[in-house]
Write a structure and sequence with these properties.
- The complex is a heterodimer.
- Chain A contains 15 helices and 13 strands.
- By secondary structure, chain A is of the alpha/beta class.
- Chain A has a seven-stranded mixed beta sheet, sandwiched between helices. In chain A, strands 10-11-13-12 form a four-stranded antiparallel beta sheet, covered by helices on one side.
- Chain A is globular, with a radius of gyration of 25 Å.
- Helices cover about 35% and strands about 15% of the residues of chain B.
- Chain B is built from 13 helices and 14 strands.
- The radius of gyration of chain B is 26 Å and the shape is globular.
- The termini of chain B are far apart.
- Classes of the chains: A alpha/beta, B alpha/beta.
- Chains A and B meet through helix 1, helix 2, helix 3, helix 4 and helix 5 of A and helix 1, helix 2, helix 3, helix 4 and helix 5 of B.
Chain lengths: ~500, ~475
């Protein structure tokens, strides 16, 4: 029997704290309490409205306690490959919440919007400089929407040139899942190309599938395999010669900030994940921001609105200025509050700080890489230089001890580390994609290495510690099969 | 060095461990001729210097009295809300792929899904989408996938849906062969009519996948949702309800529209605790009937048990999603609006059913108060009558551009120009005004008086 008097981890649902006879607090307006529904009676709500009735302190405690069940950058190291979980400076949040910014209506008159528009204009310029592109649009609300905008522009370009037989987008087998999903949303079919044993694209395979049907290629560089694509110039030449365009997935921009620009590699369109490279918060899964940058040939197709500037001040470019634009992606102008956080971060770093981002992100990754090799961990591409991340494969351990990469991941949670990305990219068996970022100290990296070594010993001596992990978290391993088979998605509606 | 904790001694040791002389050596795989330095970006600054600049910029735009809505609404936000939402454990957490280390976020999303489903009277909700406009696009794609019977990629899109929403839907769905067929609104009521819909079909059994019904619509007017829903269902089409969540405290929920209820409910949830912030980040909600759950795009959280039988929460139905299905996924969407969903959940928990009803009722009453004040100004007219929730259209006697600009000089955001783009003389100078619970009687009187004097002033200027 448990010696605990209270299970510290149990937290009921907010609905279970509710009493429908409780009246609302000072948070609601005083007027309107005894008033009848003033709207047309046949359109009035007649169905019951189930929402919790809970006191303010009890609500506050409930969500504070729930927050404590999370791992987060503020509390834990997050070596999550491809996600760039670096410190989100607090000042970015504080300043983005200033009343002048947070209370501005998106349709406020331009004479009352010059402050925010100047910030957005400057951010457009900074991102253009950082990526070597001709123009930037800030409107895409996440990386996946930036990808959508990019491929939609590729399509608009070919359609505009009446080059309508181009039906295929080429995607490496190791690409993010959003790449092929995006190509399909834009009406293309997807052609996958393999990677060679050094992590570079298989050029011969690429040459075979390029043709007049090729609309473009989607690449990440450094790639999702954690290495720099060395043949990028040759690939760009092949694609351009065939009349296709190159799309750059900016997920790994942190690795090359201030070192090499996607525009110089030959890319025609890119998206940036500001919630990665420019350190805006991940927020438990969004909001993100996925601005796009374009080369000269895609400029007419860029999504609106865009901030422009003349003697009178800042103003919005709309469909009248850009008649070939692919159009709007959000009701207003994207996730302005997030863009503002990225802008503040960029001002703090400056160009000198940005170069150090890539320096130290790469230093930290290569340090981890070397020390883990020394500790007899197997790397997917041992002969290559790591970029800001690298892939470790636990296939030997899986074979010898029967412990999977997922088991290692779950055991890491017990030691207070968020697990690295597991089972991505799909082509490396039992893999971890590890990205430390520049904001972790050497001491923290050392402690992480020691923990991995310890878990490896546990895998050998007592593999059940891994297979049954985690033990120390609010819940043990969860039944995903039950979750999918017996769907329980809504407290008020049980199947 | 901003946010880089390494000492010079650390650097020496780390380089030695790696076996290189300098950090520069770590970039030796990048072709030399591709390398370049950053230019034209200012040098880094101290936090204090940046704060001083941003203070100045935020003061430049002021904090005007706001009567604009049109999809972005000013409501009071409880002080505790963002204090909790920006706790580092919520603010700086990742997407909850590692469920055991993310029970906080996951339980919050489960609560969010339950609250959205309850508000809309739907069975299930997803974990959120980017915003209301892109959410409507996802609802359209979902309806086309789901309505296999209709075998149609045609969607009936009323012109009483926000024009920017229509543009966003067009941008997102046009490459998939989907056609958005516009349905004109009645010039007297500003709403769509069944007779118009009948006329839209070239023959009675003309197939279409779905009808979109906005409630309240872009002009603030209330659509005859029961009649419209039954009409669409008679034609074997699905109904997509585009609704304002605050209004659902007073207006019938989509799940109970007509005989069988709408099939999909979608909308912008910014009104529930999220600041206006120039248009984003906001949050799209998307809920549906149980039978459509496998067509829902985006993240979904389910309740389950751990290996000791204890309740826990996890992402589920992931086989729909891009990271598993890749090119066969329901959408390319990856992230949701996690932090915004947290804020919405907190808002509804703090306000409760009773509080939400008070907010909605106060919005409606304040709106009626302002309409009465404006009625006394004989220069103004109401093109669509007055059956509204918290927004309405007035026709101004003078140039709307001038009115909005003069109001701005008085530190007032007067509303939104909703005159149709190719407007005839009757359809000029339409101003969409929104009044929420945040306005006092004095402010409403001040606005009515200021609008009157500005219109008179412009009229004098125009005649002289």
């Amino acid at each position: 029997m448990s010696k605990r008097i209270i299970d510290q981890n149990a937290e009921p649902l907010i609905f279970e704290l509710s009493d429908q006879t409780r009246q609302s607090s000072s948070l609601a307006p005083k007027t309107g309490s005894e008033q009848k529904n003033p709207l047309a009676s046949h359109l009035q709500r007649k169905s019951t409205l189930d929402l919790p009735q809970v006191g303010e302190l009890q609500v506050l405690r409930h969500y504070t306690r729930l927050s404590q069940k999370n791992f987060s950058i503020d509390t834990h190291f997050y070596p999550l490959g491809s996600c760039t979980m670096k410190y989100n400076p607090r000042v970015c949040n504080t300043l983005a919440q200033l009343p002048g910014f947070s209370t501005r209506h998106p349709m406020a008159h331009s004479s009352m919007s010059q402050g925010i528009m100047s910030c957005l204009f400057d951010l457009q310029t900074i991102l253009k400089e950082a990526t070597g592109m001709q123009q930037v649009s800030l409107t895409p609300m996440a990386g996946a929407q930036g990808e959508f905008a990019g491929v939609a522009m590729i399509r608009a370009y070919h359609d505009h040139n009446q080059d309508t037989l181009r039906s295929e987008i080429i995607v490496p087998d190791a690409a993010h899942g959003t790449n092929p999903a995006t190509a399909v949303m834009c009406g293309y079919t997807v052609k996958e190309i393999p990677t060679n044993d050094q992590g570079d694209i298989d050029i011969q395979a690429l040459e075979k599938i390029i043709g007049p049907q090729t609309a473009g290629i989607m690449l990440t560089n450094p790639s999702t395999l954690g290495v720099f694509e060395r043949d990028i110039k040759h690939i760009a030449k092949l694609i351009h010669q065939a009349g296709g365009l190159l799309y750059y997935d900016g997920a790994n921009l942190n690795a090359i900030l201030g070192k090499v620009k996607p525009g110089d590699m030959g890319f025609d369109v890119i998206h940036m994940n500001l919630h990665k490279t420019f350190s805006t918060p991940h927020g438990g899964g969004g909001p993100g921001a996925g601005p796009i940058g374009v080369s000269k040939r895609l400029q007419p197709f860029i999504p609106i609105p865009i901030v422009a500037h003349n003697e009178q001040g800042y103003y919005w470019l709309s469909e009248d200025d850009l008649p070939l634009s692919i159009g709007r992606l959000s009701a207003w102008m994207g996730n302005v509050g997030i863009l503002l956080r990225a802008y503040i971060y960029a001002l703090l770093l400056g160009r000198d700080g940005m170069e150090r981002v890539a320096d130290y992100a790469t230093l930290n990754a290569n340090y981890l890489f070397k020390r883990l090799v020394a500790a007899d961990f197997e790397m997917a591409f041992p002969k290559r230089r790591a970029s800001h991340e690298f892939i470790l494969t636990l296939r030997k351990e899986a074979k010898s001890y029967g412990t999977s990469a997922m088991d290692f991941a779950k055991r890491l949670l017990d030691y207070g580390y968020h697990a690295p990305t597991t089972y991505f990219p799909l082509l490396v068996p039992e893999c971890f994609l590890i990205e430390p970022t520049e904001t972790e100290s050497m001491a923290d990296l050392d402690a992480f290495i020691e923990t991995l070594i310890k878990i490896k010993t546990e895998a050998k001596d007592s593999p059940d510690l891994l297979k049954e992990a985690p033990f120390e978290l609010p819940v043990r391993r969860l039944d995903d099969v039950k979750a999918a088979r017996e769907l329980d998605l809504n407290f008020y509606h049980q199947e | 060095m901003p946010y880089i904790p390494h000492t010079s001694n650390d650097l020496v040791q780390m380089l030695r461990t790696i076996g290189v002389d300098s950090i520069e050596d770590l970039f030796d795989e990048i072709p030399k001729d591709l390398r370049s330095k950053l230019q034209n970006i200012p040098l880094g600054q101290s936090e204090m210097a940046v704060q001083q600049q941003l203070f100045a910029k935020s003061l430049q735009d002021g904090t005007p009295l706001c009567f604009a809505g049109g999809g972005a609404y000013e409501h009071y936000i409880p002080a505790a809300l963002w204090e909790i939402a920006t706790r580092g454990e919520f603010y700086s957490a990742y997407t909850p792929y590692q469920a055991e280390a993310s029970q906080g976020t996951l339980q919050v999303i489960y609560e969010y899904q339950s609250m959205i489903a309850s508000l809309t009277a739907m069975d299930v909700s997803n974990a959120s989408l980017y915003d209301g406009a892109s959410g409507l696009a996802e609802a359209v794609l979902m309806a086309v996938r789901a309505n296999r019977k209709a075998k149609s990629k045609r969607i009936l899109m009323p012109e009483s849906v926000s024009p920017v929403y229509r543009q966003v839907v067009e941008t997102i769905v046009k490459n998939q062969g989907i056609t958005l067929e516009l349905v004109p609104y009645n010039q007297r009521t500003g709403t769509i009519q069944v007779e118009q819909l009948d006329a839209q079909l070239s023959k009675p059994d003309d197939a279409f996948a779905a009808l979109i019904i906005p409630q309240p619509n872009y002009f603030g007017s209330l659509e005859e949702v029961h009649q419209l829903t039954d009409w669409a269902h008679r034609h074997k089409a699905l109904v997509i309800a585009q609704v304002n969540p605050i209004s659902l405290a007073l207006l019938e929920a989509p799940g109970n529209w007509g005989e069988h209820g709408a099939d999909i409910a979608v909308g912008e949830a910014q009104a529930l605790g999220i600041p206006l912030s120039s248009g984003g980040p906001y949050i799209g909600f998307l809920a549906c009937k149980q039978k459509l759950v496998r067509q829902l795009p985006g993240r979904i959280v389910g309740r389950t048990v751990d290996l000791e039988g204890k309740t826990g929460f996890t992402l589920t139905l992931q086989a729909r999603e891009q990271h598993i299905r890749r090119s066969k996924a329901t959408s390319n969407i990856c992230t949701n609006q996690g932090l915004m969903a947290t804020a919405v959940t907190l808002y509804l928990a703090f306000l409760g059913r009773d509080g939400l009803q008070k907010v909605a009722t106060t919005c409606a009453l304040n709106t009626q108060t302002l309409m009465h004040l404006l009625e006394q100004n004989s220069d103004l007219s109401f093109p669509f009558g007055q059956g509204v929730f918290h927004e309405f259209v007035i026709q101004l006697p003078v140039s709307i551009d001038k009115v909005l600009s003069y109001l701005a000089q008085e530190d007032i955001v007067g509303g939104i120009d909703v005159s149709p783009r190719k407007s005839s003389t009757e359809q000029k100078n339409w101003l969409l005004i929104c009044v929420t619970e945040t306005k006092t009687e004095e402010e409403l009187q001040f606005f009515a008086d200021t609008l009157r004097s500005i219109c008179q002033q412009i009229s004098r200027e125009e005649s002289s």
